[in-house]
Design goal:
By secondary structure, this protein is of the alpha+beta class. Helix content is 56%, strand content 8%. It is globular.
């Protein structure tokens, strides 16, 4: 055990693990020289009384961080307990005693089983018996008790036991004998916190409950996961009270530390009066701390460096899994709370104030000055509470072209200086001029594009990003950002070329940006949703505190119809970034899809209350007003989009659907015409094609075959490369009975997008099924639609606000064609049951008519009459010449 501890602990260098400086032998007796620690064991700190919640969270974060570092080295502690955790006078946790650590994955190391007779009737301190049990009984995991092969998850269970004891002052699994204790570990849950502490934190209870899952598969899978949840709890505490400076670890001056010679554990308690001295740099930051980036001080007089170097530094530091840069949106929100302009330049003084207000640990300031033909670049990280310098770096660039390279070198040194391990810096260190561009002018355009996008919107930013690409055609980040903007503006085919170029250049960028580029390529170019999800999930594993993957992962879940999972992703994204307007919009849309209207309203209004703004928020509120029949509220939301490029056309098309919902086809046509013209006026051809295709589908559903074909042809002509417009046009042709054009477009889609999940599994089966229904091959139609069943409740595209449930509608019509009334009625009812998903789609109002036809086919006249009456009441103000309305009135009359 002595050798094991020496080997394990000496392999670790982490502020929350007791540092081993030397191992050796003196006079035939082995020794370990470790850092001197002044304080008390955690067991003594608890002393049978609950610790304050702030202290539980603070110590829990540090213990989890230390365990994560050990696990990253392949070391499983196997004896995590309060008696093996030290709390220094500075309130820092230190994990001790790696004497039972597992250094390899050989099953033999885990095979030692618990001998109950040997540990009966012993107190807690005696429960660790060398040669008898691997670990301390009261803190063992179930798999440890059973003598099974162990991995890092056993430490996380034991850590959960420690958290429980810190929170309550009691053992989670009490008992006078090991038999009683192990039975509880295997079969019972601890007494809930609130039964012990009435005002216990529900969030802490959730964390402990998950950590203490009996099945390792249901437990936290890695220390980073529990670290993230504890950080969320900490953030919640900080947002509800003034941060306590006493919990922040201050940087001490570099000085020799006393190091004690530990006595041997196996042979004897050797007392040796020798002190070793070893200079050890204090670690300034930990993984849970956030940093504010100040603007660069530019004394060169060259405007190309303004904002540009800060953006470059953000990219460079962003590749670090250790550093946690406070997002620009959080900085802007903090400035608003300070009654400052959200776009105000962050001087060092203002950055320090923002840092303190946001609860960050440090701010990082940069400077550049000219020295003849050379440039001197300085970086300094300072503790925003004390003003102490945590790390400083200064480099010289031989010329303007070498500034980015020099800045990258300084940033790498600074990362190590503030506490990131050297191995991490080396692993995640793509040269800055490669990760961005070697053209300062191109980088300046990219930086201005990001700023313009925030201040003025996507449309205004497009030409600026294009300028950056003109200056450097291999600027991967600019290609990626521009491709994403086009996708957000419903112009995915325009964005596809940029996203593909970024994908081709992905080996030039940082690891974080590579994840983004790869995932977006699969999501928006090839349409391989499962590959996109896998990339997003891997991104989260490598960068667990990064909020960026969550909105996109949630979006793919929505396309796949996995709304509960999408909600989880959105909530986690908002926990990490509470000011992400896209995440708010997505979550509101998800709640709508789940018919959880109150939550949708609360989420959307919360975003607007935070002064966040996005068209999608107003679309959500429009839908909620539509469900209530609140015409004034619908108009208010529609008016909010007037004159806004990328928003006005979308809202006009939504209004056209509202008119069509009640059969006011003439007004619907006018709104669709305005939507198409608005998009074309802003040179947005793909959205114009989508609104034209939407009009085509409506005409086809209502029985106007000629008008449907005309609109479908116009949609394809407007944007020949848009696969969404072509897919909708193909379905419109099929619904209008034009098999030739429908089949031609379907074959073209199959050829162009062979890997696209939605095209291959939803659109093509639906189009082909409708063609077969027209040919009276209803059985073949129903069989074709089996492929669409797993995705039929999905959004069909990441840019859609709702889903018209076309696969369900086409299947219902096929059942009617096959004279299967009950099955048809069930499909139409499915559409009605998902009103929050279909919003004001024509399929929603027509589902009432389809339901009536299904009941009539069953011979259930009473239900059929009621359903016909529902439809005719809905269409009481409808244009009288609509073919499907004429048919409905005739059918209803026959039932009288």
């Amino acid at each position: 055990r002595f050798q094991r501890e020496a080997q394990a602990a000496s392999a670790l260098n982490h502020p929350n693990i007791c540092t081993i400086y030397d191992i050796g032998e003196q006079d035939g007796k082995p020794f370990i020289a470790m850092e001197f620690l002044d304080g008390r064991m955690l067991k003594e700190c608890i002393g049978g009384e609950p610790l304050p919640l702030e202290q539980v969270v603070h110590l829990g974060l540090e213990i989890a961080d230390g365990l994560g570092a050990a696990h990253a080295k392949g070391i499983v502690h196997r004896d995590v307990k309060p008696a093996n955790i030290f709390v220094t006078e500075r309130r820092d946790a230190k994990i001790l005693d790696f004497g039972l650590a597992k250094l390899s994955s050989t099953p033999e190391e885990d095979a030692t089983t618990l001998t109950m007779d040997a540990v009966e009737n012993v107190n807690e301190d005696q429960l660790t018996i060398p040669g008898t049990a691997i670990g301390t009984v009261a803190y063992m995991s179930p798999e440890q008790v059973r003598g099974e092969v162990l991995d890092a998850r056993t430490d996380l269970f034991s850590f959960g036991v420690v958290l429980y004891e810190m929170a309550t002052g009691r053992r989670a699994f009490p008992g006078l004998t090991s038999g009683v204790v192990t039975e509880a570990i295997l079969n019972r849950a601890p007494t809930p916190l609130r039964q012990v502490i009435p005002n216990a934190s529900p969030a802490l209870q959730q964390i402990i409950t998950k950590a203490l899952e009996k099945d390792p598969k249901l437990r936290y899978q890695k220390a980073a996961d529990i670290l993230t949840d504890l950080q969320g709890l900490k953030s919640g505490l900080e947002s509800s009270r003034t941060p306590r400076v006493g919990l922040a670890k201050q940087l001490s001056a570099l000085r020799p530390r006393r190091v004690a010679i530990a006595g041997t554990i196996v042979l004897s308690a050797l007392a040796v009066g020798i002190w070793l001295f070893h200079p050890r740099r204090a670690q300034a930051l930990r993984a849970t701390d956030t940093i504010v980036l100040a603007d660069f001080s530019n004394s060169t007089g060259d405007a190309v460096f303004d904002d540009t170097l800060k953006q470059a530094l953000a990219v460079d530091l962003g590749q670090s899994p250790f550093l946690n840069i406070l997002s620009q949106e959080k900085v802007r929100q903090t400035l608003r709370q300070m009654t400052r302009s959200p776009g105000e330049r962050l001087t060092q003084d203002l950055a320090r104030e923002v840092c303190q207000r946001a609860g960050s640990k440090a701010y990082l300031a940069g400077s550049i000055a000219a020295l003849g033909t050379q440039y001197v670049i300085g970086l300094e990280a300072q503790n925003c509470a004390s003003g102490d310098a945590l790390a400083r770096e200064q480099v010289t660039a031989a010329g303007k072209e070498q500034v980015l390279q020099a800045l990258g070198q300084a940033a790498a040194k600074l990362r190590n200086g503030v506490g990131e391990s050297l191995s991490s810096v080396r692993k995640f260190d793509v040269p800055l001029e490669q990760a961005t561009t070697n053209s300062l002018e191109a980088l300046k355009a990219y930086t201005l594009g990001r700023k313009t996008q925030y201040e003025k919107g996507d449309v205004e930013a497009i030409p600026i990003f294009k300028r950056g690409i003109e200056l450097d055609p291999n600027f991967a980040l600019a290609h990626s950002w521009l491709g994403a903007i086009y996708s957000n503006l419903n112009q995915p085919s325009l964005g596809a070329d940029y996203l593909k170029k970024a994908f081709d250049l992905r080996d030039r960028v940082t690891e974080r940006e590579k994840f983004s580029i790869t995932a977006n390529y699969y999501l928006l170019v090839t349409g391989e949703l499962e590959k996109a999800n896998q990339t997003f999930e891997l991104w989260i594993q490598v960068y667990p505190r990064d909020d960026a993957p969550y909105p996109n992962l949630g979006a793919t879940r929505m396309v796949l119809g996995q709304y509960e999972k999408a909600a989880e992703e959105a909530r986690e994204g908002l926990r990490l970034e509470p000011t992400d307007v896209i995440e708010y919009a997505n979550l509101g849309q998800i709640y709508l899809a789940l018919n959880r209207f109150d939550e949708a309203r609360h989420t959307t209004e919360e975003a607007l209350g935070r002064k966040l703004e996005h068209t999608a928020l107003h679309l959500n509120l429009y839908a909620l007003a539509f469900f209530q029949g609140n015409v004034a509220a619908m108009k208010q939301q529609a008016d909010s989009a007037n004159g806004k490029a990328g928003a006005e056309d979308q809202m006009l098309s939504l209004e056209s659907d509202t008119e069509a919902w009640s059969g006011r086809l003439g007004k619907a046509r006018e709104r669709s015409r305005q939507a198409v013209e608005s998009a074309r006026r802003n040179d947005e051809k793909e959205p114009a094609a989508l609104w034209q295709a939407n009009a085509a589908l409506r005409e086809a559903l209502f029985g106007n075959a000629d008008a449907a074909r005309q609109h479908a042809a116009a949609a394809v002509a407007l944007a020949p490369e848009s696969h969404d417009a072509r897919a909708q046009a193909a379905l419109a042709y099929a619904l209008a009975g034009d098999a030739k054009n429908a089949q031609s477009l379907a074959d073209d889609l199959a050829k162009r997008f062979p890997q696209d999940t939605v095209v291959q599994s939803v659109w093509l089966p639906t189009i082909r099924a409708q063609i077969e229904t027209n040919r009276k091959n209803a059985a073949q139609s129903i069989e074709l639609l089996q492929a669409a069943a797993p995705y039929e409740l999905g959004m069909l595209t990441v840019s859609a606000a709702n889903s018209c449930l076309y696969p369900v509608y086409v299947r219902a019509e096929a059942y009617l064609s096959a004279q299967q009334g009950p099955d048809a009625a069930a499909e139409f009812q499915k559409i009605l049951d998902h009103r929050g998903l279909s919003w004001n789609c024509g399929t929603g109002s027509l589902a009432h008519l389809g339901l009536a036809r299904g009941y009539a086919m069953q011979g259930d006249t009473t239900k059929a009459k009621a359903a016909y009456q529902d439809f005719l009441a809905l269409w009481k103000d409808a244009d009288p010449d609509i073919p499907i309305l004429i048919a409905a009135k005739s059918e209803y009359a026959e039932l009288q």
